[in-house]
Amino acid sequence: MPISSPRVIIIGAGIVGANLADELAQLGWTNTLVIEQGPLTIPGGSTSHAPGLVFSSNGSKSMTEFAQYTIEKLTSLKDADGRGSFLPVGGLEIATTEDRLQDLHRRAGWNRSYGVDADVIDADECAKLFPMLNRDMVHGGLLTPGDGLALAAKGTQLVIDRARAAGVEFRDRTTVTDIETTSGRVSAVICGDDRIPADIVVSCAGFWGPKIGEMVGTPIPLLPLGHQFAWTTEVPSLVGANELPAGAKRPILRYQDKDLYYREWGERIGIGSYAHRPMPVDLDTLQVYSPDEITSEKMPSSLEFTPDDFAPEWEATKTLLPELAQTQIQRGFNGIFSFTPDGGSLVGQSRQVDGFFVAEAVWVTHGAGIARAVAELIAEGRSKTDLSGIDLNRFEDVQTTPDYVSETSQQNFVEIYDIIHPLQPRVSPRDLRSSPFRRQQEELGAFFLETSGWERPHWFDANAALLSEMPSEWAAPERDSWADQFHSPVAAAEAWKTRTSVAMFDMTQLKRFEVTGPGAGELLHGMTTSSMLRKPGAVSYTLLLDEAGGITSDITVAILDEETYQVGANSNIDLAYVSRAARHQSAADPSKWVSVRETTPGTCCIGLWGPLARDVIAKLTDEDFSDAGLKYFRTKPAVLGGVPVTAMRLSYVGELGWEIYTSADLGSRLWDVLWEAGEEFGIIAGGREAFNSMRLEKGFRSFGTDMTSEHEPVQAGLGFAVKASKTDDFTGKAALESRAAAATTKLTCLTLDVPSDVVLGKEPVYVVGGERSGDADGGGASAKSDGSDGSGVADGYVTSAAYGYSIGKSIAYAWLPNTLSVGDAVEIEYLGRRLPATVTAEPLFDPEMTRLKG
Fold first, then answer.
1. What whole-number distance in Å separates Cα of residue 101 and Cα of residue 95?
2. Distances (CA, A) of 680 to 438, 444, 615, 621
3. Helices marked H in 743-790
4. Which carries the bigger pLDDT value, residue 791 or residue 301?
5. For residues 539-568, b (16+ Cβ closer than 10 Å) or e, as one string?
6. Omega into 429 within 30° of 0, i.e. cis?
7. pLDDT, tens only, 811-854
8. What are phi and psi of 748, to 5 degrees?
9. Which residues contact 351 (CB under 8 A, 6 or more apart)?
């Protein structure tokens, strides 16, 4: 039957594509065609062979929510016999080392932070839940009773049936050979000789995604990798235990210390392994089966088993589960799954082509949840769950190159079950991106960590000598072994010198782009919460909102001249968003054209901050850098020691000073002239650890950590960035009043009562003796917290945390009920212990802003 101009074409009918079609239908969008190259009953992708384990524990609140929705939806999908598509057998992660047991406490904290029932149990309880365990090996386990097994293939068929009943069309045994674009937007999907018009195309092709992306010039940075899964022969204790051939009653089991997981499979045990060597798959040489050839045991995503790779894990399995020594490996295969440079999914609209969306590298655990989010993004313009952490556009260009994707994705495979510290950098590749100050920083003994390919100094060994001069009240307290990783007491000295003298901070890594043209001001004026129709020299800290008033980014905009605006952004996501809006405005009215150009690679920036910063500047220029000559949040061009610069009176650490920009070729010279001028004032170089401490002392927020699109400005403490004087309309304005009135949580400043207690972020927080307010704007599931035993659902969760050297206390910001007041007591759960803390007025340092404004 011919297809007539479907508005949405979804490529791929696995668990993501099928659920996306269904979720769109639930929103009233039924003019949809789903194209699948295999047969619908067994498409042949990862969904067809997925073992189905759903462990919801995740450091990301969004990914946890996606898992919870997947469980909810699969539970609701029932066949004619009333059987659901989810087996709620629970999840059990065991520890065979003390380090792993500590990490399970941390993971339990994630669960409770985001409203998921979880508890760390002892070895005896683990053995009761999974009787074939070798009890003597086990130190304890993390039990998540709501987790279980997704019957992915069955659930996908049921959701296809429901979407079809709503009017969605599915066409299987059809291969997409090209995607047509017109004027920068998708216009049709080509399947051989068949051209199918489309307004929106969504790639849900799984590990085939990169091939689909190539058709529209959009990099999809994922690597297909083989992953071993095997079944044992019949297990004596399971004979007759499960009525279904693939049924299960005992919890799904993770043995992360050996990179293994297990599930009952009727009378057998299924075993999955990440312990083997990475097995990258070349899509150009992958065997392709005709639809008629595909079976449950023969499909494109199922490669031949390699027993030698599995042999060590089989021995480890028989040690952990001694009963399996009575069995053998009956069958196995190497299934293809998608891995990405940072291990996250790839979701959102292409930066290069309008109307081309992606939902790739999505595992069964999150399939239905991400499908719902993408449906909301397409139909309503925004997802109710924040997508910034998995946005397709989050990577820098160097991170989408084949070599980078291959190496980092393979490393993520190797490390998938490793205990990873929040600050732990990748080992390779390194030294991809460095500021022009790299030589000087190495001479000062910089300790570098890596972010988005950038090498960023976290402290400088040259400043260790200052520890003996520093007043004792500035000293950092001793930390526990976990918090002490990637930390140096030298950060205390760097904070001390910044607050009392002057310091230089490398700010080159800040994403920057220029918005130019006769329509630049109008464009940004309509996108932000501040006025952009001001005189050159003005600088604004402002917000980007979605239509529902949620914060999608915070940016700094400097008006360099009437048609040139410099934007200090958070990531490539902001660049993609503004670039797309500029294309639309330029096409709609050529007289108000706008150009967007990234300037980060060709420029650099030094933050010169501290009470003596003006003394340093005075030695380099006759320009007026007084409070009157360059006011707070103003910018002007200048020449410092012969180097032309743009100086902005800004400070993220709460001290007098400037962000000083110049071209990359002059960066080394800029560092040297500032350093030489500052030597008589004791100038130092400061790193990110001291920087982060001081920014929390001032209460400055970090997008993606402290606030996301799930939060509106007032509850995030950013109401000041929505200018009351701006009467013009801007994105999200109409929703702000009602959104703020409905908020039940707020970003709250806490100080820990014991100075030596330090937390790192994402820990659950409990109100002492209080009732919860609910989770409409950032908390977990509604429940009463008893504040006693470390279990139960939390009242909120920590976002950013650091030790405040200037105030001699540990600081934590947390989303908590907005009924709390200054002085109220809370407890932060850290690695299974409750740490007392207190709600505190903010900012903690210089609340009168005299240091910043003069």
1. 5
2. 23, 17, 10, 17
3. none
4. 301
5. bbbbbbbbebbbbbbbbbbbbbeebebbbb
6. yes
7. 999 999 999 999 999 999 999 999 999 999 999 999 999 999 87
8. -120, 135
9. 218, 392, 393, 572, 575, 576, 579, 580
* Amino acid, res. 101: L
| Start-to-end C-alpha separation, the chain | 74
Question: In residues, how long is the chain?
Answer: 854
Residue matched to tokens 């769950």: 385
CA distances from 598 to 396, 494, 567, 578, 622 (A): 11, 31, 9, 11, 31
Angle formed at CA 97 by CA 95 and CA 101, multiple of 5 degrees: 50
Which residue matches tokens 């030695």?
Answer: 619
Token digits for 152?
């992915």
State the catalytic residues: 227, 261, 554
- Half-sphere exposure for 846 (CA within 13 Å, toward CB): 19
Instruction: For 679-717, write each residue's pLDDT tens digit.
Output: 999 999 999 999 999 999 999 999 999 999 999 999 999
Cα 80 to Cα 84, 87, 150, 339, 515: the distances in Å are 10, 17, 18, 36, 58
Q: Looking at residue 789, what is its pLDDT? A: 43
Q: How many Cα neighbours within 13 Å face the side chain of 184?
A: 13
Q: Strands 446-451, 454-460: parallel, antiparallel or unpaired by DSSP?
A: antiparallel
Q: What is the pLDDT of residue 4?
A: 42
For residue 220, the surrounding DSSP H or E stretch is none
293 CB-contact burial (10 Å; exposed 0-12 / middle 13-18 / buried 19+)? middle
Two structure tokens written together for 90: 């629970």
Q: How far apart are CA 723 and CA 584, in angstroms?
A: 26
Q: Which residues of 456-482 are buried (b: 16+ CB within 10 A; e: fewer)?
A: bbbbbeebeebeeebeeebebeebeeb
Residue pair 122/140 in contact by the 8 Å Cβ criterion: yes
Q: pTM value?
A: 0.95
Cα separation, 521 vs 730, in Å, equals 13
Give which of 219, 246, 193, 206 is closest to 38, Cα–Cα: 206
Element (H, E) at 98: helix 98-113
pLDDT at residue number 242: 87
The conformation of residue 731, written as its DSSP 8-state character, comes to T
Instruction: Kindly tell me if the per-residue pLDDT of 772 is higher than 50.
Output: no
Q: Measured between alpha carbons, how far is 389 from 574 in angstroms, rounded to an integer?
A: 13
Residues 134, 323: Cα–Cα separation, whole Å: 9
Q: How far apart are CA 483 and CA 221, in angstroms?
A: 32
User: How many angstroms separate the CA atoms of 130 and 118, rounded?
Assistant: 17
Q: How many CB atoms lie within 10 A of CB 408?
A: 21
Provide the sign of the torsion angle of the four alpha carbons 778, 781, 784, 790, taken in this order: negative
Which residues have a Cβ under 8 Å from the Cβ of 556 and sit 6 or more positions away? 539, 540, 541, 542, 567, 568, 648, 650
In what side-by-side order are the strands of the sheet with 223-232? 119-121, 140-144, 91-95, 252-255, 260-265, 268-273, 223-232, 329-339, 302-304
The Cα 715–Cα 741 span in angstroms is 10
Q: In what order do the strands lie in the sheet with 53-54?
A: 53-54, 148-150, 86-87
